[in-house]
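quick one, 322 residues, struct below
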Amino acid sequence: MSLSGEQKRARILAVLTDGQFHSGEVLGAQLGVSRVAIAKHIKALSELGLDIFSVSGKGYKLGRSVELLNADKIAALRHSNGGLDVLNVVGSTNDVIKSQLSNLHSGHVCLAEAQTAGRGRQGKVWVSPFGSSVYLSMYWAFSGGYHSINGLSLVVGLAVAATLNKLGLNDSQIKWPNDIYYYDQKLAGVLIELEGQVGAQCHAIIGIGLNMDLAEVDANIDQPWTDLKSINGSVPERNQLCAMLIDELHAYLQRFEQQGFEQFIPQWQQHDWLVERELNLHCGNNIISGVGKGVDVQGALLMQTAKGIERFFGGEISVRAK
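---
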């Protein structure tokens, strides 16, 4: 059975992770393709954000070390149960989960090395270069339907914050409803997409992007951002981090499904990035200004406006410049 182009590129990358030079001729012999074909695969890998040196007479070498995701390692490190798919390059991990909904059980996870069509809220692009971040989606079915998931995105943000705490990063904050910040710079984001009919089971596809090492990537991100390497000077093992994040998500989602959001409010208050800040909430063509006053038991944003304390379930929030 012949290998697909994607599989061949994965084989090439697995060889290059040793940090040494490998000639196109040797790589071609290993895969049964020509040196020209190898050059084309190297170009395709470079376009995914990988820094690959090409030196005449020596061959190809990765410009920085990359720890590839490994399903067996992650399975051995995690404590929770559930299916796990570890893929190379996908459009988006959320889309992979959505395409398999009828065959999945709660807790099923899809991880990818890179996304070519990663996205955030409001249709924004999520920059997803190869091996530079965690791109994870988890499926969870809520038997209580849509009315049982108020506060879900906030709980997922708290699960990410709990994972960061285990890495020694205790100062993370969450921007309602779904962004994780570290000293006013975005470190991670959450995108939750829902499937199902009103009155029936609700299927949640929970996507998380966590920046690990974007320093050498032309990120083209339109807001202040940071990554784990910038914060710590090094990055944790990606497989270990993924196992930790999966376990935290399992634990938080199980508690949320059983008890709802209210129990998480004290923890949310410790991470609330918007509390007492002057805010603009963009709802369609309307802009509502006020001061952040936390969240209520359903996860709605509370704002002190000219009308008093108002609650909001949607919209795009921004902090007003001082």
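The mean pLDDT is 90.
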